[in-house]
Design brief:
Order of helices and strands: HHEEHEHEHEEHEHEHEHHHHHHHHHHEEH
Strand content: 5-15%
Distance between the termini: 29 Å
Number of helices: 19
Shape: rod-shaped
Strand order of the largest sheet: 5-4-6-3-7-8-9
Largest sheet: 7 strands, mixed
Helix content: 40-55%
Structural class: alpha/beta
Number of strands: 11
Amino acid sequence: MARVTARARAGERADLGPRLAGLRDAVEVLDRVGAETLADPAHGRHSVDGPHRTEPPEPAAPLARAHGVLTRVGRRRELSAEHTVVALAGATGSGKSSVFNALSGTDVATVGARRPTTSHPLAVIWGPAAPAGALLDWLEVTQRVEVAPDHGGTDLSGLILLDLPDIDSVQTEHHLRAARLAESVDVLVWVLDPQKYADAVVHTQYLRPMSRHAEVTVAILNQADLLAPGDREPVLADLTDRLADDGLRGVQALAVSARTGEGLDDLREVIARFVSERRAADARLSADIATVAAELGTAYSAEAGSELGAPDRRRLVTTLARSAGVEEVADAVAGSFRHRARAATGWPVTRWLGRFRRDPLRRLHLDSAPERGEGGAVVATSSIPAASPVQRAKVATALRDLGDATAAGSAEPWRSYVRAGATGALAALPDALDQAIVSTPLAGRSDPRWFRVVGALQWLVFAMLAAGVLWLGVLAALRYFGLPVTWLPQLGPVPADPPWPELPALPWPTVLVIAGVVLGLLISLISAVVARVGARRRARKARADLNRAVADVAERLVLDPVRARISDVAAFAAGIRTAGG
């Protein structure tokens, strides 16, 4: 007996469970992305010959078919696993109903010259019909005949044999009904006849789309008795070649005659093997999944994008930091530190002038801890100048460049999907960056201890100056009223070796005034130098903290969505590979 299925390939076939999980993963990705986005007609396709524009696939068709397959697989697995549904399908005049009657040993199928002879599907059940009721209800087969499990001399318990309407019926509802059932049964037996076995409708619309269903497909050449003995083998060979061209390699045609009974035992044995193995349903569903997975893979060809590199991340963070005003805030931290240093350590005589200068951090509303609402969320905003149009343009360019670099290994439409993950945050970035700046603890908000030490020293020096001025004032008053000054302590004279002159003696009040002025100004100068060094250090730390905050925003709003989309592309591609086996 000729082999009619590609069972040698069973070891290469993935199990139904992994295939189903792979298709479900791929469909979930497409549902999440949105098929209308992925099937943008403006996107070009690429082939091995280079980029070229082609008509995109019908946007919803492959995805809709995938949903239909998932629904059908789920429903068929819920129904009876003890039954195998074998359907006889064929064109008008192929003798399908005669083969059906001969196989079932009944005369329930109408046979005659009037076409079409079969308008509704008919089922013969080997064994009790009740357990198969839900399965036949799902198939919408209402005409049912029950026969004994060993009817015909072979135990076919669990077999449901269907006679389908003609696939080329002039009645639209008839061939639509046949097409729907052909998608749902477990095994299809294609009944062909010597006159129409090469019919383009059968091969193009039915056999070729089922190229992955070779394991559950049987082809018979009915009415073989009408062929001359010398024509039979060439016709069978030609039919086998045509099936191979349709992708049904391994499906070899059986010569059958419903009138003479030729080949019916071989056909019955093939069907009996399907029934005994109890796996035709899984094989059919696996082939359905592989077929629709191939359609999805063609319609939405996916390759995972490039991983995000450290240079890409640094460039993005640098651009966002400039747009967010990190440099301005770092400068304000340094300016605020110097401002408070002058106020705390400056010469008390001129220190009051600093009151007319506003603290740079206060000017940006960053001089204190931010207000927080429920859940600790920052509710305050800063007064950092908004990004200029040039800076906004640079941010948009940086996002597009990041998306392009990441999607470099992807084809359309996934390239645009990955790029959109980078550019989608453009509108939300300004507020997010401002909140990141406001919520970052800045190093310049607190004063170091040496401020108080130097401030106390300045007041001590100022007290010397004040004492000298007061002393000189008392002396001036005494002279003004003509009162004698009995004794005035002096410093000096200070001798010196030639050629240096000898320093004259200075009254102590004068020494206190001069010392107060000189020491006050010198301490202020030294403090200013030290404060400038400290300001630079605090600016560096603030810049680093702010850059980390900006990097967190970049991760959350840009890089994580891009990675998620790359993961979606990879998950889709992996799901398609698994579903295709």
